[in-house]
Design a protein that fits this description.
Elements lengths: L1 H12 L1 H4 L32 E10 L4 E6 L4 E7 L1 E6 L4 E5 L3 E3 L6 E5 L5 E10 L6 E2 L5
Antiparallel strand pairs: 1-8, 2-7, 2-9, 3-6, 3-8, 4-5, 4-7
């Protein structure tokens, strides 16, 4: 079911579908298309279960930090405003600027830092499973 949903999204985003627009004012720009996350790790197979898509807007204040966390399912994001530095527990790093897309790490601890002078606004789309969390906070060290 998840594959069918994602195939439908891909078809809606294809230029050939919008080429039929009679007004000629629709353009399609692919911001990300990949089989790997931002650090090059392959994306996992689609999860089994009842699919649940979540669209979430996250705002990080100037100087703010997102606590270490991981995502059990694939997700992709677009940064609407600000500048974001994402760092994995292994030390991989990505700088994201407004307008750029990000295919997030899956099942890997990471954190984010607002390194700009305006609040970060990022919209994330999660391809999860109903009833299961899309983000897991890292437990505090004991």
């Amino acid at each position: 079911m998840t594959r069918i949903f994602l195939l439908g999204i891909a078809l809606l985003a294809s230029q050939s579908l919008f080429a039929r627009d009679t007004h000629g004012n629709v353009t399609v720009e692919t911001l990300a298309k990949t089989s790997t996350s931002w650090n090059g790790a392959p994306l996992p197979p689609y999860a089994q279960g009842t699919p649940e898509v979540s669209v979430v807007k996250v705002t990080i204040p100037v100087g703010g930090t997102v606590a270490p966390h991981k995502h059990p399912y694939m997700n992709a994001a677009i940064l609407l405003a600000g500048e974001l530095r994402v760092v994995s527990e292994a030390g991989d790093e990505k700088i994201l600027k407004a307008g750029e897309a990000l295919v997030e790490l899956v099942d890997t601890w990471h954190t984010g830092f607002n390194i700009g002078d305006v609040p970060v606004e990022i919209v994330v789309v999660y391809a999860g499973i109903a009833g299961e969390p899309v983000t897991v906070s890292k437990p505090a060290a004991e």
